[in-house]
Specification:
By secondary structure, this protein is of the alpha/beta class. Among the domains are: 130 residues, Rossmann fold (3-Layer(aba) Sandwich); 88 residues, no CATH class. 33% of the residues lie in helices and 21% in strands. Strand 7 and strand 8 form a beta hairpin. The mean pLDDT is 95.
């Protein structure tokens, strides 16, 4: 029976492990943390019964029927459509910016896309080239909203001005010309019952899978003959694997400050962004909205997110310096495929990908060998 080694028990690793195990392979999964599910790990707070995400809010959404059918095979899912508000002065505006946001901010009563486009045309100027997040925002909503929402939020989140960031960063939240307040517009939007930790637990619950937590790849490889594995899939940081030979790829991390309050709800929405430099954090998440307790309790848990360069690598920083560095690592990674060693997932490919993308790419990678 062939053996597979997978480094990382997040969604990419769990998907590959489950697929290979069901195909008859013996699979070993390593993870340096003491828990599985990677950054989407969550737990029930013993004091309040509120499900809390340890590494920030994770919301599943996809337009892929294949991915949707796949994740439904492990646990039941409950519908959940995420909405985000952004605090601008004394107002809470919908994000992404839409008709409601423009009407609320400028005290207007625009009714349709045509009116919204005509109004924004008075606030923007056409640019010959859109090469940065700053260019994109200025070209679609104008300078006032750019300065109040996007500029300072970027400075806090990325420690970079939007002029230094790829336009792709802001385009993840495109401008909308309707009244749709949802953060995502994907066809399938839901949360797994029992949380994402439960989902990954079920995915890895197979007789052919052996899971080693609190185990580093370097330690494991030093003590074990890796030739016993026909394929190795590595979901850790690609630059770390190569011992930063070409230099460090930049990642932004988050410092989560959790607070318990004797209130039914702390804020009017699950997520509120704070772009102003008056606030050192970027957003407040209130977890009770995602998994409401069965019984009403006058307790709630929030987390304030403080961006930092230290800590776990969460967000690849999309700018030219890192693109050029990544190309060098990718060339080395490509050479390793001849030895059946593959880099996968957000950290392994140094890309910001959503959960459904991580699963879809892992499914497609498995298909290459089945």
């Amino acid at each position: 029976m062939s053996r597979i080694l997978i480094v990382g028990a997040g969604l990419s690793g769990a998907t590959l492990a489950e697929r290979f195990a069901n195909a008859g392979y013996r699979v070993v999964v390593l993870d340096k943390r003491k828990h599985l599910a990677g950054n989407c790990y969550d737990h029930l707070d013993s004091k309040t019964g509120i499900r809390v995400s340890n590494y920030g809010a994770h919301l599943f959404h996809t337009n892929s029927l294949e991915v949707w059918n796949y994740v439904q095979s492990f646990v039941k899912w409950k519908p959940y459509e995420h909405k985000v508000l952004v605090k601008v002065a004394d107002k809470l505006l919908n994000l992404p910016i839409n008709l409601n946001s423009i009407n609320d901010f400028f005290s207007l009563q625009l009714k349709n896309e045509k009116q919204m486009r005509a109004f924004l045309a008075t606030k923007t100027s056409k640019l010959k080239k859109i090469s940065s997040s700053e260019d994109y925002v200025l070209s679609v909503v104008g300078r006032k909203l750019y300065e109040l929402i996007f500029q300072n939020y970027s400075l806090k989140q990325w420690a970079l001005n939007p002029s230094e960031l790829d336009a792709s960063v802001i385009k993840r939240n495109p401008l909308r010309f309707n009244h749709d307040n949802r953060y995502f517009t994907d066809q399938y939007q839901a949360l797994p019952e029992g949380g994402f930790e439960n989902l990954v637990t079920k995915m890895l619950d197979h007789k052919n899978i052996k899971l080693f937590l609190q185990t580093n790849y370097s330690e494991f490889s030093a003590k074990n003959d890796l030739k016993q594995f026909s394929k190795i899939f590595y979901t850790g940081p690609i630059d770390q694997y190569f011992d930063y030979f070409f230099g460090h790829l930049e990642y932004r991390s988050l410092d989560f400050h959790f607070e318990e309050h004797d209130l039914e709800f702390y804020q009017p929405n699950s997520a509120i962004n704070y772009p102003s430099l008056d606030y050192p954090f970027t957003r407040i998440i209130e977890y009770k909205y995602f998994y409401p307790p069965k019984e009403k309790i006058k307790k709630t848990i929030i987390s304030k997110e403080y961006p930092t360069w230290d800590g776990e690598p969460y967000y690849p920083v999309p700018r030219i310096r890192n693109h050029e560095l990544l190309e060098k690592y990718q060339l080395e990674a490509k050479k390793m495929e001849k030895d059946n060693f593959y880099f996968v997932g957000r950290l392994g490919t140094y890309r910001y990908i959503n959960m459904d993308q991580a699963i879809a790419e892992a499914l497609n990678l498995f298909k290459r060998f089945s």
